[in-house]
Design goal:
The chain is an alpha+beta fold and about 300 residues long. It folds into 4 domains: about 130 residues, no CATH class; about 60 residues, Double Stranded RNA Binding Domain (2-Layer Sandwich); about 30 residues, Double Stranded RNA Binding Domain; about 50 residues, Classic Zinc Finger (Double Stranded RNA Binding Domain), CATH 3.30.160. About 40% of the residues lie in helices and about 15% in strands. It has 11 helices and 18 strands. The strands form 8 sheets. The chain has a 4-stranded mixed sheet with strand order 1-2-3-4, covered by helices on one side. It has a two-stranded antiparallel ribbon with strand order 5-6. The protein has a two-stranded antiparallel ribbon with strand order 7-8.
């Protein structure tokens, strides 16, 4: 477990030994995973939030020379129990390997010319480039053949090896495809305390870091990267853009099996199917009349009871 490794390092390796961990490694392979939990300036004792902040502090307050003109190979993370949290975004991981793979997103020291994927050091870039080589790559477990090594490895991992289920429960050994599903299992099966993540900008709480991150980007930062090519509308997610595009294309791929009516959105079809199921979930609390669709209930409340809802 990451927590056990941290305890081992603190107890059995002094500062001199830690400084020599990467000694002899060429710069192409160089990477340092730095725990910034409870980071503090040793010169003045001030608590510091992160790596960039402490470099600013050392430069401005103590007049230390920090060489920022070289590529940064220091990957900051924080401990939260047995999870490893990225210090630059809300994501968390159970293993150092997964954290290091993720950190490439934040460090564009070396970029692939083919797919533009970023990497911390040159060695990981060179390793990645092998995935783009064209040829015939046979699966080691079945007769399938792939045109790139990357597709072959991805197929073997997900279909045969099952390495996508990396997150292991510490109590029963069951494995999960992601950290969030493991946490849900720990709460439901083993009675662990549920993770409660509060948004600092509003009162909403979340049980998963990815949902909190999505909420902040979509609702507070108003991130809208998906632009409609036909109008000025912009959307947070591609799924929202695809739903909107039905207005322009006129495509109606979702068809009712009962009456054969077609719709441009899956949600619209789902609402329509309630008509056939006589699902009257919208009930008037004044007279008891119930409706299949919300718009019908709103019209009823306005016309019969003079109440806007």
């Amino acid at each position: 477990m990451p927590g056990d490794l941290k305890t081992h390092t603190l107890l059995l390796h002094d500062d001199k030994a830690k400084k020599g961990f990467m000694k002899g490694y060429p710069l192409t392979n160089y990477v340092v995973k730095l725990d910034v939990t409870g980071l503090k300036c040793e010169l003045c004792g001030m608590d510091i939030d992160g790596l960039e902040s402490i470099m600013d502090h050392l430069e401005n307050e103590h007049k230390k020379v920090i060489h920022r003109d070289i590529k940064n190979h220091i990957l900051p993370f924080k401990f939260d129990g047995d999870s490893l949290n990225c210090a630059l975004c809300p994501k968390s991981y159970a293993r150092f390997k997964l954290l290091q793979e993720h950190m490439n997103v934040h460090y564009r020291n070396f970029v692939c010319d083919i797919c533009h994927a970023p990497f911390v050091n040159r060695r990981t870039l060179h390793s990645h480039l092998g995935r783009h080589k064209q040829g015939d790559f046979s699966c080691d477990f079945c007769p399938k053949i792939f045109d790139t090594q990357g597709k072959k490895l991805c197929h073997e991992k997900f279909v045969h090896i099952g390495d996508h289920r990396r997150n292991k429960c510490a109590h029963c050994g069951e494995r999960f495809t992601n950290y969030a599903k493991k946490n849900e299992h720990m709460v439901e099966v083993h009675g662990a305390e549920p993770l409660v993540l509060k948004c600092l900008a509003c009162d909403k709480t979340f049980s998963r870091r990815d949902r909190l991150s999505r909420h902040i980007k979509r609702d507070h930062l108003l991130e809208r990267k998906n632009e409609c090519p036909h109008c000025d509308m912009k959307f947070y997610g591609k799924k929202e853009l695809d739903m909107h595009m039905a207005k322009h294309t006129g495509a109606k791929p979702y068809k009712c099996d009962v009456c054969l009516k077609a719709y441009g959105r899956k949600n619209t079809l789902r609402e329509h199917l309630r008509i056939h199921a006589d699902d009257r979930r919208f009930k008037c609390d004044k007279c008891g009349q119930a409706f299949v669709q919300k718009c019908s209930w709103k019209n009823h409340m306005r016309s019969k009871h003079d109440e806007a809802v």
